Amino acid sequence: MPDIYPDFDVVPSALGILICERKSNPPFAESAFLRRLMKTGSLAGLPVFAFAPWTWSPVDASVTGWTWNEEKGVWESSRRPLPKLVYDRSWPADQKERSRYTAALQRISDHERLVHLNGKLPDKGHVHAVLARDSRLAELLPPTETYSGPATFGSWLDRHDGSAFLKPAQGSQGRRVVAYVRLPDGSVTLQGRHRDNRPFAVTFGHSSEATDRLHRWIGDRVYLMQPLLDLRGPGSEPFDLRALVQKNGRSRWTLTGVAVRSGRPGTVTANLHGGGQAAPAEELLTRMFGRLRMKELLQQIRDSCRDLVRRLEQHYGRFAELGLDFGIDRSSRLWFLEANSKPGRTAMAGIGASAANAAVVRPIAYARSILLRPHGRVIHEFDHL
Fold first, then answer.
1. Could you tell me the pTM of the whole model?
2. Strand ranges (DSSP E) for 135-249?
3. Which single residue of 72, 75, 216, 277 has CA 20 to 30 Å from 137?
4. pLDDT exceeds cutoff 50 at 187
């Protein structure tokens, strides 16, 4: 197969994929995605390997790097020089592993200069506040407040028809979200997902019981409150839209694809880790709102993505890719829900081979552009976005 970037010289460096190494087979999460990155890198003349930061040795600045041996069908490890460019695809299993990962990465950074392919976003509350200061983006944002106890929560319910959607400020993949709905007879339903993404639903006879249970469940975690938007499809299934935006080999932003993520009826989120399914956005939006409005909504999403990446890079530095999540209510109003700086690839796989392939190729192409660039700088130019 010919080199997919024949106009580039071979890059005399490597891209390191940051992982949490485990005693399992495969030895880390997202192994299929990493295998595709390594294959794409090989075709592009860019070596790619995975490593856990705690394997770094200050003696010779080396790490234990993992690569896939296609011939043998196994993962193999060997000591390799620490790469200067890294791509974070770590998924710590718990707080202990997260602390170990963070501390190990800090130890490396104290001695070596690492360039991160993708930036990192702070908690959802901070991001919401930054976006809300932009008049164009503020119109897309649901009202949002930080949960601070039963008393202020009661005030929120009075202002929002007795309901709320609560999500952890630092959560991901739909875990530990909960919807609070006060019914006409005074009873309350709490519906959401546990930490392991299992759904739950429980009804209380009185609002005070539900509020107390919710307060204990939140504990000392930081949670955000938002209105319970009516984001349901024709079969009352929850749905949202994931737009994957990525930089290409010219360091320009591109829209890789927009997927509808549909959850199971009776659940509160459409996240794929909770059993949802992904499909092209056009079909569902046409069924719900007609072809003309579908085109208008997709153009609005495209325009919003352009505004969002500009704003986020202005405040948080350079990114290689972002997963931008939108909701559309029954009146066809578009809402921006949240940004993810470590987006998965499942949604793109659900809309076709072209988007799935681009979702893998573009991080490699952008990595090459960084390694070939004499001085890094943030670029806000757009191709097909």
1. 0.90
2. 145-146, 163-168, 178-182, 188-193, 199-204, 223-226, 239-247
3. 277
4. yes
